Amino acid sequence: xxxxxxxxxxxxxxxxxxxxxxxxxxxxxxxxxxxxxxxxxxxxxxxxxxxxxxxxxxxxxxxxxxxxxxxxxxxxxxxxxxxxxxxxxxxxxxxxxxxxxxxxxxxxxxxxxxxxxxxxxxxxxxxxxxxxxxxxxxxxxxxxxxxxx
Length: 149
Description:
By secondary structure, the protein is of the alpha+beta class. Helix content is 28%, strand content 46%.
């Protein structure tokens, strides 16, 4: 393995961590810097095409729930020139907001991502989440009686 491959793996690992933290911090601008404009995603609710559609979909869930934490592990990265693929486990916890604070929703899954090196920076071009299990209730993502809680 050469230095360029090691640096690519590190950059992709860092971007994956930034993506997870951006979701938890509700930092939509950060997400936009990681995704290409024409990125695609399948995260369990149908195919999403384009960076804006992906962010809107993520926000539809996270803007109405309480605190979240997306933990990543067992990362594998395969680099082939200016393209790469990564796989990592994700365990995500979502807590309810406001009166729903006692509710939780958690998933165990596996992110399968494709990357492209553009202008010297690795950008995500595709995300597929393979959900293996979930615990809790989707009510966590339902708005409260006055809109988002």
